[in-house]
Amino acid sequence: MRIFDPHIHMTSRTTDDYENMRAAGVRAVVEPAFWLGQPRTGPTSFIDYFDSLIGWERFRAAQFGISHNCAIALNPKEANDPRCAEVLDVLPRYLGKNGVVAVGEIGYDSMTGAEDDAFTRQLALAVERSLPVLVHTPHRDKRVGTRRSLDVVRESGIDPGAVLVDHLNEVTARMVADSGCWMGFSIYPETKMDEHRMVAVLKEYGTARILVNSAADWGRSDPLKTHQVGLAMLAAGFSDADVDRVLWHNPVEFYGRSGHLLLGTEHGTGAAAALYEGNSVLRGQS
Ligand SMILES: [Zn+2]
């Protein structure tokens, strides 16, 4: 099984996770820029974080044979902090780079005016740069938040085929399917979607325009949930080709629109002794 996790925050994960992901078939990931739990106090913290997404983290993933790409944005939660607003002016410097395959995650957290402003400005940036966008839907008031996100997306004039609306469930899936946007499902160990409900969604909607991710981060989450969806699909009678479509071809098609998607070995040797600015992932071993 060949897996591309289209939404995972590897910065928050360990080398054991990379090893287990590789063994389960994960060959590529997209890491969207997000909220780190600890509030940032200014734009330079974001710059260091973005640099690490296109630098150290890509290098680290390559040591485990995984192609690492990212999405860059000011996340919805921190869009509310005026100290961080300047980050919006820094984004263009990252959006033309190889391995930066989308603007994201953008969207709503609490649906404030500041979030509206950041959401709209970043959609305009995506249109200007012909990049896909990853839209996070709020965990509270999901139906209202998703409906309003789709309205803002429509008003931006962006091609719905360049938009992934993520963290969906059975309540919000239909409106996104009808909008022409891509449908993203995050599979969590305890809340939201699980692999069996995901199989039921795939039976209802088919395998086109659907992305399945683990959204694993610093919270309770599991980076192998994509693999478990693949197994649940096979157990439910889907073919190997169906699994490959959902877990590999769909993310390649969606993020491939950017023209910046890195896949394969051209940017990583898989050699654990390799160095990034003089440092390796080893700790004294050879
Ligand atoms: Zn996320």
UniProtKB/TrEMBL annotation:
It comes from Streptomyces ficellus. This is TatD family hydrolase. InterPro entries: Metal_Hydrolase (IPR032466), TatD-like (IPR001130), UCP005295 (IPR012022). Pfam families: TatD_DNase. Keywords: Hydrolase, Metal-binding. Belongs to the metallo-dependent hydrolases superfamily. It comes from the Bacteria. GO terms for molecular function: hydrolase activity.
